[in-house]
Specification:
The structure is a single chain. The chain is an alpha+beta fold. It is about 40% helix and about 15% strand. The chain has helices at about 25-45, 50-70, 80-105, 155-175, 195-205; strands at about 70, 75-80, 115, 130-135, 135-140, 180-190, 210-215, 225-235. Strands 3-4-5-8-6-7 form a 6-stranded mixed β-sheet, with helices on one face. A two-stranded antiparallel sheet has the order 1-2. α2 packs antiparallel against α3 (about 80-105). It starts with about 25 loop residues before the first helix and ends with a strand. Residues about 5-30, about 45-55 and about 70 have low confidence and may be disordered.
Length: about 240
């Protein structure tokens, strides 16, 4: 009986890599045949990928099986080792196909949501009091400006700092949040000497919340303010 030749998958292109496989005298030849299937698929030369992971798996598996299960009448056995290698190759590349199909899908970016409240000063320029995006609230910097009168509160640093915290707290409440949801704070001062009173007022208002914080001493702040603060908080909705 003459040994049969391996069947070439019907989707394979007529390239040198997809030529009919002749019987070898060792198992290495069969392993190489199965590997050629995997190589041709990964190069995009032999198998259509637009059908998604399932179709790619079927086409790859058929080719790998045809190359790897060639009967050996002369030695009376099937190349089991090559078959095992082909199975591994098929599973790995099918996972790759699913991943490729998933990443190819176009996703629409989540729309930005503007946060606005009358209990905090209106934006003094082309910006928002706060923006919710990616699961976080980004609150714009607040100075010690009274939302009702629009004037700066600057009799003492403590009063100014409390006004700043009142303004930011109003933005947090507009989103149903509080200080425990804050993850990052940036404070701007015009005098380094205000660092100690800053910590005193800050600790009283924050309570147990201890978000990450950066304090910067600046040459000047908008509107002649002596302190400004912004924050980032996790959003709940």
């Amino acid at each position: 009986m003459k040994p049969r030749q391996a069947n070439i998958h019907k989707w394979a292109l007529p390239t040198a890599a997809a030529a009919p496989v002749k019987h070898q005298t060792s198992g290495a030849g069969y392993g190489a045949s199965a590997r050629r299937c995997c190589s041709a698929w990964s190069d995009g030369r032999s198998f259509p990928r637009q059908g998604g992971g399932a179709a790619s798996f079927v086409s790859l598996w058929s080719c790998a099986r045809n190359h790897a299960t060639i009967s050996r009448p002369d030695i009376g056995e099937t190349q089991g080792a090559s078959m095992k290698a082909a199975k591994v190759c098929a599973v790995v590349l099918s996972i790759f196909a699913v991943t490729q199909a998933a990443t190819a899908q176009t996703t629409t970016p989540q729309a930005l949501r503007i946060v606005s409240t009358d209990d905090a000063p209106k934006a003094a320029g082309p910006y928002s009091q706060g923006i919710v995006s990616g699961g976080f609230l980004f609150a714009a910097g607040q100075v010690p400006r009274d939302p009702k009168t629009g004037k700066q509160v600057a009799d003492t640093f403590e009063q100014a700092m409390n006004r700043v915290l009142d303004n930011l707290e109003a933005v947090l409440k507009a989103e149903g949040l509080d200080w425990t949801d804050v993850v990052k704070v940036t404070v701007f001062l015009t005098k380094a000497d205000d660092f100690t009173p800053l910590n005193t007022v800050y600790a009283q208002r924050m309570g147990a919340a201890k978000p990450a914080r950066t304090t910067v001493v600046a040459a000047a702040l908008p509107g002649g303010s002596i302190v400004e603060m912004d924050l980032i908080a996790r959003a709940r909705k």
